[in-house]
């Protein structure tokens, strides 16, 4: 089913690209060039994340992943996942393959939700830059509230599942 879903969107993209090319060749060529440049900019980060994921999965067995981040780890696993997300600085799109592999190797859904939520909203690594523009109080409060929101989201998901 996932392959059919993916192939549908590839086909739809190809059809829409052909329509765009037929309508305005110059704009379509410019858009494709920009997209390729964007992909070129993200590709090194994406490859680095995949290599790190591969290295982590070589060291950590599915049992270890399940023990730290599995469904049965409850609040501790959620907190650990959210903390890891809060200190991680990677492009958001690059993290989805990592989370997919962790889920396949025993990580819990709520734990991975906390990880993604904290990764996209909390920035401990970028806190010095945030304090420069927002002030220390606003930056710390923003990060604290989003961290708590990540935990709350995962706990609600844990209760529902």
Task: Write a brief structural summary.
This protein is an all-alpha fold. The chain has helices at residues 2-23, 25-59, 62-69, 74-87, 92-104, 109-121, 127-134, 136-160.
Task: Based on the model shown, name its key terms.
161 residues, mainly alpha, 8 helices, 86% helix, 0% strand
Q: What gyration radius follows from the Cα positions, in whole Å?
A: 19 Å
Outline the low-pLDDT stretches: none
Largest sheet: none
Strand content: under 5%
Order of helices and strands: HHHHHHHH
The overall pLDDT average reads: 89
> What percent of the residues sit in helical stretches (DSSP H or I)?
over 70%
**Counting H and I runs of at least 4 residues, what is the number of helices?**
8
Shape: globular
- Classify the secondary structure makeup into a structural class: mainly alpha
Annotation, overall tally of beta strands: 0
> Between the first and last Cα atoms, what is the distance in angstroms?
23 Å
Quaternary structure classification: single chain
